Amino acid sequence: MKCLLLIDIQNGFCSDGNLAVPNGEDIVPIANRLIAEGKYDLVVASKDWHPADHGSFASQHPGRKPFEMGTLSGKPQMLWPDHCVQGTPDAEFHPGLNVAGIDHVQRKGENRDVDSYSAFRDNDQSALTGLSDYLKRAGIGTLDICGLATDYCVKASALDAKAMLPAVSVRFVADASRGIDAGGVEAAMKEMAAAGVRIITSKDVFAGE
Q: Measuring CA to CA, which residue among 83, 81, 95, 84 is closest to residue 47?
């Protein structure tokens, strides 16, 4: 069984979004082709789904600005602009994404007291989203991961997939992903590769690898 995991392809991370990833929307056509032609048995998409008072938002820390380091529940935390707030257009999937081809949506980031980059568990690793059990029940053997942003939520999801699904082959689809910072993307790819995540492109998928 082969699964495609799309990470946070939401308005909030595309142009004009509240936490836009440079050229984030450029991956939508590639993601759609992967859905249509990648021969996946299962397509899953994660979605940041924050309450309006999420503790990772700079707005919840008087005197602090977005992209400063702060604390959340006593731990270091990057403070973000308000983004992907539940029920707002910012939290919806990009309108160009083929949502009809998605079999399961995994929401994350609903606990205001801890951030959740990974689609599998909160950053403190104490609360699971249930995605790992879902994929185990489905009998997934290969998991291809892509989306936004490479250096944060995609990397965290790939690393957690390797840790929590040791029998699964995990692959990162590089050209179907975009990151916030070029240096961060390079470092993320090295970290994923070191953990055993295979780096591929959509061409590899279409070639049947």
A: 84
